[in-house]
Structure formats: C-alpha cells, structure tokens
Automatic annotation (TrEMBL):
<protein>
    <submittedName>
        <fullName>Uncharacterized protein</fullName>
    </submittedName>
</protein>
Length: 171
C-alpha cells in the first residue's frame, strides 16, 4: 500500500492544499518546483503510520489472544452489569457482575490502601498510565502543560498563575 506519488500528483496535492487553506503562502512562491516536491514529500512522510511489527511466534500470539480475551470478557461483564441494572434485578444485582469479575482473580480493591475510599482518585492513581500527581498530592485526572490536576479548581489556579506570569512578561 506504500505507493510512490508522481511529481504531478504531489503538485496537485500542493495546489489543492493551498486552495483549501486561504491565507497560506502560494505554493509557487517556493524556490522552485523541486522545493515544492520536497516539501510535499516531507509532509506526506510525516502522515505515514508507524510500521507495525509482525508477530510470528506462537507464544506471543497466544499471549496477545489471552490478553484480548481478558479485556473482552471484562468489557462484556461491565455491559452485563448495566443490562442487569436497567432491565434485570436492579443495581445491587448488577454490582454482583462487577464483584465476580474482580473477585475471581483477586482484584477487589483494598479499601485501606491509599485512595481506597475515593473512586476517582483510586482510578487516577491505579490506571495503566497515571498522570503526574496534582500539586496538592492527589492523583490527577487532567493534564495541562505537563502538570496534572485532581480537580477543576486546581487547574484554574495554576492557569491563572501562568496567565498572570505571561501578562507580566509582556510589560
């Protein structure tokens, strides 16, 4: 599927790009035709997906299949819980789907662990790729400029401080 574009196709892309982006420098204002082609090739190269590794050994294939099955089954269990809640025996019965999914492999939360009594903080701290901790020490649920925030109030405080510092630079 990696088809090499002709120079004419690249020039056509550049013309279409310019036509759909008013205010952008004219494509013919490049140094020369070769410059336009080099620019377009670089632009297209940046948009290519990362190459994927091919899995060839059976052990890795089985591991991927097992992990995929686990994710699938946990998703179906959560869906079943919602069905039970909305169309079955209610919320308490629905919770049994979730408890059974976690209890079987020993994944029920430790309520005495840090954040064991605060659902959002528990999720934020224990997700696969947690965000940086908020300046107050709590786990973060949002990210701005590399800093994590546990709540909108802390984000607004940091943002106001940043905006004030930037306004001071302009004076």
């Amino acid at each position: 599927m990696n088809k090499t574009l002709t120079d004419e196709q690249i020039l056509s892309i550049a013309e279409k790009h310019h036509a759909s982006h008013p205010g952008v420098d004219e494509w013919w204002e490049f140094r020369d035709r070769a410059d336009v082609i080099a620019f377009a090739r670089a632009l297209l190269a940046d948009q290519q997906p990362e190459p994927r590794a091919e899995v060839v050994d059976d052990k890795t294939k089985r591991l991927i299949k097992t992990l995929s099955d686990i994710i699938h089954d946990q998703t179906v269990a959560m869906q079943s819980a919602i069905i039970e809640w909305q169309h079955g025996k209610g919320a308490k019965a629905a919770l049994s789907w979730i408890v059974n999914t976690l209890e079987g492999p020993g994944h029920l939360p430790d309520f005495d662990a840090p954040h064991g009594k605060h659902a959002q903080f528990w999720f934020n701290a224990n997700q696969a790729n947690p965000l940086p901790t908020c300046f107050c020490g709590n786990p973060s649920s949002s990210l701005w400029m590399g800093q994590g925030f546990c709540c909108e109030e802390h984000y607004r405080k940091a943002r106001a401080k940043y905006d004030a510092a930037r306004a001071g630079e302009g004076q």
